[in-house]
Amino acid sequence: MLQSIQHFIQKGMQSVSPCLLCSIDRQQHHSLCNDCWEQLPWFKQVVDRHEHSISCAFHYDFPIDRIIQSYKYEQQLHYQNLLAQSLLSLRLARVQAIVPMPISVERLKDRGYNQMLLVAHMMAKQLRIPVWQPVIRQVQHAQKGLSRLERLENIEQQFIIDPTEKRRFRKVLIIDDVVTTGSSIHALSTLLHQLHCTQVYAACIAAAQP
Ligand SMILES: [Zn+2]
After folding, report:
1. CB–CB of 51/60 below 8 Å?
2. d(Cα 108, Cα 171) in Å, to the nearest integer?
3. Are residues 118 and 32 in the same domain?
4. Who is most buried in 67, 118, 141, 146, counting CB within 10 A?
């Protein structure tokens, strides 16, 4: 009963709240109006990076680039529903758990939240599967001035298996915000295979040029 009332209130709010992008029309699609939703830089294709096929919802273009930036760095958390729904609109394989791209404790302290963990929780709720974080990320050093190989090594060293996480899943979905070279997905995926995952899928909100 309480849930249906909450649902009703939420629906009601959506229909009267203005679109998050244009502030003119009312929200119809996950916080956006019809026009703004349709005009997003939809991509909905798979990109191949580091021998991984990564499903991507958008091109990393306006206004998705701004949305991701403000969601990530300016606490504009009201975009999380839009971002979660964009990933859910992809043809995703059936998996047993969602693995959000981890961020280091330092970044977490600075930012106050892991933006992809929030999106993962929203997706997990709808898909009725757990969020799984068996890998932790150590200090993220700046990548500037490093060669391609040094960057790869640098990223791989950042990820370590969390010995306190005892749950195991075989088929999982990694989610991240922007894929560029795909090296962090590659590093995370390598450790997931070490944890006996047999199928590791990946989906990103937006694909940028490598
Ligand atoms: Zn709009």
Report:
1. no
2. 27
3. no
4. 67
User: 90: CA distance to ligand 1 center in Å?
Assistant: 22
**3-state class (DSSP) for residue 204:** strand
Confidence (pLDDT) at 147: 82
Minimal CA–CA distance to 176: which of 31, 69, 54?
54
Cα-to-centroid distance, 29 and ligand 1 (Å):
10
CA of 67 to the centre of ligand 1 (A): 13
Provide the β-strand partners of residue 58: 42, 206
3-state SS, residue 120:
helix
Q: Which domain holds residue 10?
A: 1-39
At residue 194, the pLDDT reads 96
* Model pLDDT for residues 125-175, shown as the tens digit of each residue: 999 999 999 999 987 777 777 787 888 888 888 999 999 999 999 999 999
Q: Which of 133, 129, 130, 127 is nearest to 114 (CA)?
A: 133
Domain count, the chain: 2
